[in-house]
Amino acid sequence: EVQLVQSGAAVKKPGESLQISCKGSGYSFASYWIGWVRHTPGKGLELMGRIYPGDSETRYSPSFQGHVIMSADHSIGTAYLQWNSLKASDTAIYYCARHWDSTSSWFDYWGQGTPVTVS
Amino acid sequence: QSALTQPPSASGTPGQRVTISCSGSYSNIGRHFVYWYQHVPGTAPKVLISRNSDRVSGVPDRFSGSKSGTSASLAINGLRSGDEADYYCAVWDDTLSGPVFGGGTTLTVL
After folding, report:
1. A76-98 confidence digits (pLDDT tens)
2. How far is Cα B27 from Cα B6, in angstroms, rounded to an integer?
3. Are B26 and B10 within 8 A, CB to CB?
4. pLDDT tens per residue, chain B (110 residues)?
5. Cβ separation of A106 and B47 shorter than 8 Å?
6. Counting Cβ atoms within 10 Å, is residue B79 exposed (0-12), middle (13-18) or buried (19+)?
7. C-alpha gyration radius of chain A
8. Interface test with A, best of B56, B87, B91, B92 (most A CBs within 10 A)
9. Shortest Cα distance from B4 to chain A (angstroms)?
């Protein structure tokens, strides 16, 4: 069974750093892109970018380039999303999702979400 | 502002048919498959429709998708209270060289 399990909720202050994780199981983690998606009530779902765990190639969406860092360790089946200096506007729920077809918009399995509060 | 435009809200009464539109351009909907996601805030989004009109396994046939030119639609027949959620279209965009989500439509069952 394919599963993506994310790390728990985080509460941080502005300026602090944070790394959240997404652990995949039940499939070849290295072989599928992982997307990170932000959800806020005002903007809905936004794709932040994608990472290919096999070689850690990353593709950031323009709005998020330079604000977050995506990484992955395929040996332990885990992808990470990192902030070096959080802002209040980073308050959101963050989802990781498996990108089934790397040239489409098909994200077939999703993590349960990690709420991040910056205040 | 997303490359895909959806109405912010839609509503209907139980049993009615509701359609949600998604408008794009040649560089996205015009050239690529459209996907539709259902998202109940606080839970993981799930894909309902793949490749414009294919229902994902387990999705009731009350849900259907279509595409014409640079627009796509999601139709829900026999509306139920459990259908209340946010619905998003998503498609690959050649200009961005990646997937993009529409702004989302909040469906209310009156």
Report:
1. 999 999 999 999 999 999 999 99
2. 17
3. no
4. 789 999 999 999 999 999 999 999 999 999 999 999 999 988 999 999 999 999 999 999 999 999 999 999 999 999 999 999 999 999 999 999 999 999 999 999 99
5. yes
6. buried
7. 13
8. B92
9. 12
pLDDT digits (tens, 9 = 90+) for B1-19: 789 999 999 999 999 999 9
Q: Which residue of B has its CA nearest to A95?
A: B44
How many angstroms away from the CA of A61 is the closest CA of chain B? Answer: 8
What is the three-state SS of A15-34? CCCEEEEEEEECCCHHHCEE
The DSSP secondary-structure symbol of B8 reads S
Contact B102, A105 (CB under 8 A): no
How many CA within 13 A on the CB side of residue A83?
A: 23
Task: Supply the pLDDT for residue A102.
Answer: 79
Which residues does chain B have within 8 Å of residue A22's beta carbon, measured at their own beta carbons?
none
| CA neighbor of A38 nearest in space, from A91, A79, A2, A99 | A91
Residue B81 has what DSSP assignment?
G
- First vs last C-alpha separation in chain B: 29
pLDDT, residue B20, reads 98
- For chain B, give the percent of residues with pLDDT over 70: 100
Q: Answer yes or no: are the C-beta atoms of A97 and A81 closer than 8 Å.
A: no
